[in-house]
Amino acid sequence: MAAQQSQGIQTLLEAEKEAAKIVQQARQYRVQRLKDARAEATKEIEQYKQAKEQEFRAFESSHAGTTSTAQTAVDKETEEKLQAITDSFRQANDAVVKKLIDRVVLVNPELHRNLKKVEA
Q1: Where is this region: Disordered (predicted)?
Q2: CA pair distance 43, 15, nearest whole angstrom
Protein backbone atom coordinates (compact mmCIF):
# COMPACT_ATOMS: atom_id res chain seq x y z
CA MET A 1 0.00 0.00 0.00
CA ALA A 2 2.91 2.33 0.66
CA ALA A 3 4.17 1.74 -2.87
CA GLN A 4 0.75 2.54 -4.25
CA GLN A 5 0.59 5.79 -2.20
CA SER A 6 4.09 6.68 -3.31
CA GLN A 7 3.14 6.08 -6.92
CA GLY A 8 -0.04 8.21 -6.48
CA ILE A 9 2.00 11.04 -4.98
CA GLN A 10 4.50 10.74 -7.82
CA THR A 11 1.66 10.92 -10.36
CA LEU A 12 0.24 14.01 -8.63
CA LEU A 13 3.66 15.70 -8.63
CA GLU A 14 4.08 14.97 -12.35
CA ALA A 15 0.59 16.30 -13.05
CA GLU A 16 1.42 19.42 -11.05
CA LYS A 17 4.65 19.94 -13.02
CA GLU A 18 2.75 19.44 -16.28
CA ALA A 19 0.09 21.97 -15.16
CA ALA A 20 2.83 24.48 -14.21
CA LYS A 21 4.36 24.02 -17.70
CA ILE A 22 1.00 24.62 -19.34
CA VAL A 23 0.39 27.73 -17.22
CA GLN A 24 3.89 29.04 -18.05
CA GLN A 25 3.31 28.45 -21.77
CA ALA A 26 -0.03 30.25 -21.54
CA ARG A 27 1.66 33.23 -19.85
CA GLN A 28 4.38 33.32 -22.48
CA TYR A 29 1.76 33.10 -25.22
CA ARG A 30 -0.21 35.97 -23.62
CA VAL A 31 2.92 38.13 -23.30
CA GLN A 32 3.82 37.43 -26.94
CA ARG A 33 0.27 38.28 -28.08
CA LEU A 34 0.44 41.58 -26.16
CA LYS A 35 3.77 42.43 -27.80
CA ASP A 36 2.35 41.57 -31.22
CA ALA A 37 -0.76 43.66 -30.55
CA ARG A 38 1.36 46.64 -29.49
CA ALA A 39 3.53 46.33 -32.58
CA GLU A 40 0.46 46.09 -34.82
CA ALA A 41 -1.15 49.09 -33.13
CA THR A 42 2.04 51.12 -33.53
CA LYS A 43 2.18 50.18 -37.20
CA GLU A 44 -1.46 51.18 -37.74
CA ILE A 45 -0.91 54.47 -35.91
CA GLU A 46 2.10 55.25 -38.09
CA GLN A 47 0.12 54.47 -41.26
CA TYR A 48 -2.76 56.65 -40.09
CA LYS A 49 -0.35 59.44 -39.22
CA GLN A 50 1.25 59.29 -42.66
CA ALA A 51 -2.15 59.29 -44.37
CA LYS A 52 -3.27 62.36 -42.41
CA GLU A 53 0.05 64.08 -43.11
CA GLN A 54 -0.41 63.51 -46.86
CA GLU A 55 -3.98 64.76 -46.62
CA PHE A 56 -2.79 67.89 -44.84
CA ARG A 57 -0.06 68.52 -47.44
CA ALA A 58 -2.61 68.18 -50.24
CA PHE A 59 -4.98 70.59 -48.49
CA GLU A 60 -2.15 73.02 -47.83
CA SER A 61 -0.93 72.96 -51.42
CA SER A 62 -4.45 73.43 -52.79
CA HIS A 63 -5.02 76.47 -50.56
CA ALA A 64 -1.54 77.99 -50.85
CA GLY A 65 -2.51 79.92 -53.98
CA THR A 66 -5.44 81.44 -52.14
CA THR A 67 -3.12 82.79 -49.45
CA SER A 68 -0.80 84.48 -51.93
CA THR A 69 -3.77 85.92 -53.82
CA ALA A 70 -5.24 87.30 -50.60
CA GLN A 71 -1.87 88.77 -49.64
CA THR A 72 -1.60 90.48 -53.03
CA ALA A 73 -5.09 91.95 -52.64
CA VAL A 74 -4.31 93.23 -49.15
CA ASP A 75 -1.03 94.77 -50.34
CA LYS A 76 -2.82 96.52 -53.22
CA GLU A 77 -5.55 97.87 -50.92
CA THR A 78 -2.94 99.11 -48.43
CA GLU A 79 -1.02 100.86 -51.20
CA GLU A 80 -4.21 102.57 -52.43
CA LYS A 81 -5.09 103.79 -48.92
CA LEU A 82 -1.56 105.10 -48.36
CA GLN A 83 -1.75 106.96 -51.68
CA ALA A 84 -5.10 108.49 -50.70
CA ILE A 85 -3.68 109.63 -47.34
CA THR A 86 -0.62 111.12 -49.05
CA ASP A 87 -2.77 112.97 -51.59
CA SER A 88 -4.99 114.33 -48.81
CA PHE A 89 -1.89 115.50 -46.92
CA ARG A 90 -0.52 117.31 -49.96
CA GLN A 91 -3.83 119.04 -50.67
CA ALA A 92 -4.44 120.23 -47.11
CA ASN A 93 -0.81 120.91 -46.17
CA ASP A 94 -0.71 124.58 -47.21
CA ALA A 95 -4.10 125.40 -45.67
CA VAL A 96 -3.21 123.77 -42.34
CA VAL A 97 0.16 125.57 -42.14
CA LYS A 98 -1.54 128.88 -42.94
CA LYS A 99 -4.17 128.33 -40.22
CA LEU A 100 -1.47 127.45 -37.68
CA ILE A 101 0.60 130.52 -38.50
CA ASP A 102 -2.47 132.77 -38.38
CA ARG A 103 -3.38 131.44 -34.94
CA VAL A 104 0.14 131.89 -33.61
CA VAL A 105 0.56 135.39 -35.04
CA LEU A 106 -2.95 136.61 -34.23
CA VAL A 107 -2.91 137.83 -30.68
CA ASN A 108 -5.95 139.50 -29.19
CA PRO A 109 -4.88 140.97 -25.86
CA GLU A 110 -7.69 140.89 -23.32
CA LEU A 111 -7.87 141.00 -19.57
CA HIS A 112 -8.77 137.78 -17.90
CA ARG A 113 -12.39 137.63 -16.77
CA ASN A 114 -11.33 137.08 -13.14
CA LEU A 115 -9.14 140.18 -13.15
CA LYS A 116 -10.95 143.23 -11.80
CA LYS A 117 -10.11 146.65 -13.04
CA VAL A 118 -8.22 148.61 -10.48
CA GLU A 119 -9.13 152.28 -10.49
CA ALA A 120 -6.36 154.64 -9.73
Answers
A1: 57-76
A2: 42
pLDDT in tens, the chain (120 residues): 667 778 888 898 999 999 999 999 999 999 999 999 999 999 999 999 999 999 999 988 887 766 777 788 899 999 999 999 999 999 999 999 999 998 888 878 887 778 776 665
Backbone angles phi, psi at 76, to 5 degrees: -65, -45
- Chain-centre distance for alpha carbon 56: 14
* Whether the predicted model's global pTM rises above the 0.85 cut: no
C-alpha distance from residue 9 to each of 2, 20, 21, 22, 87 (Å) = 10, 16, 18, 20, 112
Separation of alpha carbons 76 and 80, rounded Å:
6
